[in-house]
């Protein structure tokens, strides 16, 4: 079975500081990994995905994530936080076929001016 | 291009009343369709998913049901709402294999009073 653990339900950073949101996964098969962002009262939007190509994945809004198989991690980073980055972020793991994605519980990012 | 429509955006219903939430996808065929619920502080809970017309998989036994009467239509229903059915309901679709992420609708905020 697949699972996702997001460390920290709430992360707070200063504007301009590094953003690091942690995601660890468990999967018995090579995984597909995703990061989504959700703004209040909206649906989720895909930030980036890893699908067994380059291990460093660049996404929208300046975010990137690195797949580290040895650490079973897929942490999301952004060099410099912006106020508009304040949102909830979800990590998800999937595999081939029709099996639904498994989502983490989410991390709420606050950005302090 | 593909789009997903979900309505209504907000809904306030009394306990014991019926529910019908509709989700439609445009610009694709034979999508995988999903219903999720977000309750406060509890992340994303997969409720139902469908890989084809009339094919429904239920992830959590509860007061809700789902139907897929047409290829690009997915309906979430209840005969009698409970207070615990309150939450933010999200529809999503995926085309292709497991390396494709989901595209989410804008969500329905349901408050059962």
Compact summary:
Chain A has 113 residues and is mostly beta strands. Chain A is built from no helices and eleven strands.
Plain-language structure description:
The complex is a heterodimer of chains A (113) and B (113). Chain A is mainly β. Chain A contains no helices and 11 strands. In chain A, strand 7 (64-68) and strand 8 (73-78) form a beta hairpin. Chain B has 113 residues and is mainly beta. In chain B, the strands form 2 sheets. In chain B, strands 2, 4, 5, 6, 9, 10 and 11 form a 7-stranded mixed β-sheet that branches. Chain B is globular. At the A-B interface, strand 4, strand 5 and strand 9 of A face strand 5, strand 9 and strand 10 of B.
Structural class of chain B: mainly beta
Main β-sheet description of chain A: 6 strands, mixed
Number of strands of chain B: 11
Anisotropy-based shape of chain A: globular
Q: Largest chain-chain contact?
A: A-B, 27 and 25 residues
Count of helix runs of chain A: 0
Mean pLDDT of chain A: 93
Mean pLDDT of chain B: 91
Percentage of helical residues of chain B? under 10%
What is the terminal-to-terminal distance of chain A?
Answer: 41 Å
The largest β sheet of chain B comes out as:
7 strands, mixed
Unreliable residue runs of chain A: none
* Beta-strand residue percentage of chain B: over 45%
Q: What is the tally of beta strands of chain A?
A: 11
């Amino acid at each position: 079975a697949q699972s996702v653990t997001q460390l920290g339900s709430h992360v707070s950073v200063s504007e301009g500081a590094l953003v690091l949101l942690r995601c660890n996964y468990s999967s018995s098969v090579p995984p597909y990994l995703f990061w989504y962002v959700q703004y209040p009262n909206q649906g989720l939007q895909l930030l980036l995905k890893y699908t067994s190509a380059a291990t460093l994945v660049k996404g929208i809004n300046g975010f990137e994530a690195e797949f580290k198989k040895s650490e079973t991690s897929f942490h999301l980073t952004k060099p410099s936080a912006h106020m508009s980055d304040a949102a909830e972020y979800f990590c998800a793991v999937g595999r081939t076929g029709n099996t639904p994605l498994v989502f983490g519980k989410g991390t709420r990012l606050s950005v302090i001016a | 291009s593909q789009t997903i429509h979900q309505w209504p955006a907000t809904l306030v219903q009394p306990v014991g009343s019926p529910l019908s939430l509709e989700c439609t996808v445009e610009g694709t065929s034979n999508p995988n369709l999903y219903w999720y619920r977000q309750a406060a502080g509890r992340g994303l809970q997969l409720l139902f998913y469908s890989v084809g017309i009339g094919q429904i998989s239920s992830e959590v036994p509860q007061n809700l049901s789902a139907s897929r009467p047409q290829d690009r239509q997915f309906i979430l229903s209840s005969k009698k709402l409970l207070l615990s059915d309150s939450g933010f309901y999200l529809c999503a679709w995926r085309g292709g294999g497991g390396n494709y992420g989901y595209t989410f609708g804008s969500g329905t905020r349901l408050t059962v009073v």
